[in-house]
């Protein structure tokens, strides 16, 4: 366990192999629909290199809606209670105390060997509750910065399969991104034979 910045904690190897396997299976189902996993199109016309599917609320740049107007007009799958429980356990372990937490959305990103994510803030939520991030599959370089700029100072962290990363408190609106994935570094025993899955649990503050 390592505190990267106040409120930002990296817990390597937090998920068991069984938990990772279960999440991979669930992600495969969620990727099928009702709103399929797809490359999000940005307002600029650019296309994100990661593929994304959401639970509870559908995120598109830069808002959450119940219905995926930009994909197929369907409502995303529900956010399961067991995933909220997992989020509460994650926070308790990362922060060393029980924290009330009612996540109502998850963004599930799949990175192939070339995919990356530029430096950004998670700021479409109307809540300052922590973000819980779970990684499975190939290791990536995760860049965790500051709340003021996309640039330095930042800390580079390798997120490997099973790692937990939490960012809340003074770090909740810090810029962060994924400059690189390291292909072939994941354990196929998770059920993911290539690429990287990342799940972020969030509180939208919407209703
Ligand atoms: O893939 C990651 O580790 C980070 C994903 C992320 O920042 C996001 O979905 O907003
Ligand atoms: Fe993010």
TrEMBL record:
Residues 102-205 form the Fe2OG dioxygenase domain. Binds 1 Fe(2+) ion per subunit. Gene3D superfamilies: Alpha-ketoglutarate-dependent dioxygenase AlkB-like (2.60.120.590). Keywords: Dioxygenase, Iron, Metal-binding, Oxidoreductase. GO terms for biological process: oxidative RNA demethylation. One of its GO terms (molecular function) is broad specificity oxidative DNA demethylase activity. Pfam families: 2OG-FeII_Oxy_2. One of its GO terms (cellular component) is cytoplasm. PANTHER family: ALKYLATED DNA REPAIR PROTEIN ALKB-RELATED, NUCLEIC ACID DIOXYGENASE ALKBH1. This is Alpha-ketoglutarate-dependent dioxygenase AlkB. It comes from [Actinomadura] parvosata subsp. kistnae.
